[in-house]
Amino acid sequence: MPLEYGKELPFNEQLSISTTGTLTVLEILQEAGIKATFFCTAQYALHQPEVIQRIVSEGHEIASHGYFHSDFKTEHLAQSKVLLEKISGQPVTGFRMARMMPVDEQAIADAGYSYNTSLNPTWIPGRYNNLKKPRKWFFDAGVLQIPASVSPNLRFPLFWLTFHNCPMAYIKIIASQAHKKDGYLNLYFHPWEFTDLDKPVKYGFPNYVSRNSGEPFVKRIKDFIKWAQGKGYGFMRTDEFAKQIIDNKQSV
């Protein structure tokens, strides 16, 4: 992220920030008694295999986030899958493209993935315009597509920046609307959000990125989880959710 704002961090520090955030996320999930999916680059797994093994040992899913976060080639799809399976000791069935950018669905299928969650079905200036794409799960090239959740009408995104900048009361309202409309929520965050990002000289982040990062973000996510559990929402890994849909499609 700092690279996007003209800053550079030593690679070891990048690893340290991601790892610190990941360990915080694991603690949150363990406290709440829920499982999640960690979309991981092969590069991170190569340098932090013990973190990958901890994620797996605590019952979470490892899915692919490509080989590198800032570089993509089609061959990275299969290469990252193979390496992540080797390090995690678990099948890797899901993919999410870095920055939720477009990726060829046939290539995803050819690499052996059963689901792809790289689509944010909304419009974000300078990033993407997916207002004509389905906002609920669908199949493309035989691969299950699970878009990120957005509000039913205006397609207001329920993504990471929303959780940094909007009042929690508003987030809960649109999350409730999306869950009622679709029957599920697909939310995503980054481990580094759970560390203090309010260091403009070091990171160069604008306020809308660094706002409510670190401990305030931990409190927000804990509050949201407690609220969702209070409404009776179940939590599950993305591969478990995908398997339900795929198995049902095959049995029809």
Name the helix and strand elements from N-terminus to C-terminus, one letter apiece: HEHHEHEHEEEEEHHHHHH
| Total helical segments | 11
- Side by side, the strands of the main sheet go 3-4-8-7
Roughly what fraction of the amino acids lie in strands? 5-15%
Helical/strand content category: alpha/beta
User: Can you summarize the main beta sheet?
Assistant: 4 strands, mixed
CATH topology: TIM Barrel
Q: Give the integer mean of the pLDDT values.
A: 96
Number of domains: 1
- The percent of residues in helical segments reads 40-55%
Radius of gyration in whole Å, from Cα?
17 Å
Low-confidence stretches: none
Give me the CATH superfamily: Glycoside hydrolase/deacetylase
Number of β-strand runs: 8
Measured distance between first and last alpha carbons: 44 Å
Shape: globular
CATH class: Alpha Beta
The CATH architecture assignment turns out to be Alpha-Beta Barrel
Concise overview:
The protein has 252 residues and is an alpha/beta fold. It has helices at 11-32, 42-47, 49-57, 75-88, 105-110, 160-165, 168-182, 200-203, 207-210, 215-230, 238-251, and strands spanning 37-40, 61-64, 94-95, 115-116, 123-124, 128-129, 138-140, 143-145.
What does it look like?
The chain has 252 residues and is α/β, with parallel strands linked by helices. It has one domain (2-251): Glycoside hydrolase/deacetylase (TIM Barrel, Alpha-Beta Barrel). It has helices spanning 11-32, 42-47, 49-57, 75-88, 105-110, 160-165, 168-182, 200-203, 207-210, 215-230, 238-251; strands at residues 37-40, 61-64, 94-95, 115-116, 123-124, 128-129, 138-140, 143-145. It has a 4-stranded mixed beta sheet. It is globular and about 55 Å long.
